[in-house]
Amino acid sequence: MESHQATMPKAARATATRRGSLPDEIVIWEILVRLPAKPLLRCRAVCRAWRRITSARDFLLAHHDHQPSLAIFSGHNPWIRGVHYHSILAFDPRAATDNDRLHAVAQLDDVFYPQASCDGLLLLSKLGSIGSTSRLSICNPATHQHAPLPGPPWNFSTMGMYPHRPTGEYRLLLQRERCKVVPDLPPNKDQPGCYVLTLGSGQPPRYIGWPETASWIFNVPVRTHDCLHWYPVYYPESDSNPYDPACGIKFMVFDTIAESFREMHQPVVSNYSYIFDMGGTLSVYTHDHSAQVIDIHVLQNYESEVWDLKYRIKLPVAEIKSLVGDFDNYRDSDVISVDGGVLLLVTISEWLFHVDSDGKLVNSFYRGRDGLSMHGCRLKQSLVQHTFFPALEGYAVNASPFI
């Protein structure tokens, strides 16, 4: 692969020398490549050389690699000029101000919920009318590209989204549960199990099998080592768990290249447990019923499946109560990786709390009646163009649902 310097035109490299400032290769490959998407788009207006270089695919891929992976939320906004705004928000702990830390990455004209994310893409669901299933669409918040996805003639739930490296295609992993019975199905289309849908192919979902663990309840997967990883949701006070934790709990793993399933050992925990990505390393965080203590286990070796308890975080309950009054209100939590460490995000009612690994309350955000919903997805912004978008019927740029 050519070096970044080799791809820089000689005239552009000489520009900075004539101006007595930084060489353009430093400005572009060390500064512009690290900018968020919106400021980078503005920088394209500086000169033709910058526009050409920052529009090239190799630069856009490098730019995407430098973007942080941000936790995303959804929030309802009041009616403004007859439109009920719906926001997709991201939390960036590195930002300098509170407004920049919790900021909108998309303003939508209808209510959509993030279902999956991958390489800057968001899979959104929109509830249909009473008695109908939700409708899926795919979008890129950075480029304002959006397209509805054709709905199959039978019900599916979404397990994840991934790039298929051998073909360069983007695919959805779908599940049709055994218990779902839909009348008037096409012949041979009623098989329960897992399916793969290739975006923009025009082909129906392709059946790939039914792993035993697919009947369990899973949250948003983590993608690493070319695999999707799920941790089964476990409720210690419930009698309806689909597996026996005494027999050992396992990840379900989906190899995105071979498109096959396997299992993986994980730490045995007796509390509510969730998977997350800690800088490319699989990790699991757990909490008890009171949700006042968070334990974080980290996978030390992917091949040998060795785990280590790395953090035990005690929430600053007294400080949180002083703001929300009742800590027993419905709350949700998420753990994000930052610079090799972890930060804890807790939502209670209209509040978002930012807690560090020592249990210190770093910041709090009040959303009021707009509310805040946590989805477990991550967004890493990308300006890379994808060929599947124009192949989807209803594809549009800078149009509804974007505002």
What structural keywords apply?
5-stranded antiparallel beta sheet, 4-stranded antiparallel beta sheet, 403 residues, Neuraminidase, alpha+beta, 2 domains
Topology:
Layout: H1 4-7, H2 10-19, H3 24-31, H4 37-43, H5 48-55, H6 57-66, E1 70-80, E2 83-91, H7 98-101, E3 102-108, E4 113-118, E5 121-126, E6 135-140, E7 145-148, E8 157-164, E9 169-176, E10 193-198, E11 206-209, E12 222-224, E13 227-230, E14 250-255, E15 260-265, E16 272-278, E17 281-287, E18 293-301, E19 306-314, H8 317-324, E20 331-338, E21 341-348, E22 351-356, E23 361-366, E24 373-379, H9 388-391, E25 396-397
Antiparallel strand pairs: 1-2, 1-24, 2-3, 4-5, 5-6, 6-7, 7-25, 8-9, 9-10, 10-11, 12-13, 13-14, 14-15, 16-17, 17-18, 18-19, 20-21, 21-22, 22-23
In short:
This protein has helices spanning 4-7, 10-19, 24-31, 37-43, 48-55, 57-66, 98-101, 317-324, 388-391; strands at residues 70-80, 83-91, 102-108, 113-118, 121-126, 135-140, 145-148, 157-164, 169-176, 193-198, 206-209, 222-224, 227-230, 250-255, 260-265, 272-278, 281-287, 293-301, 306-314, 331-338, 341-348, 351-356, 361-366, 373-379, 396-397.
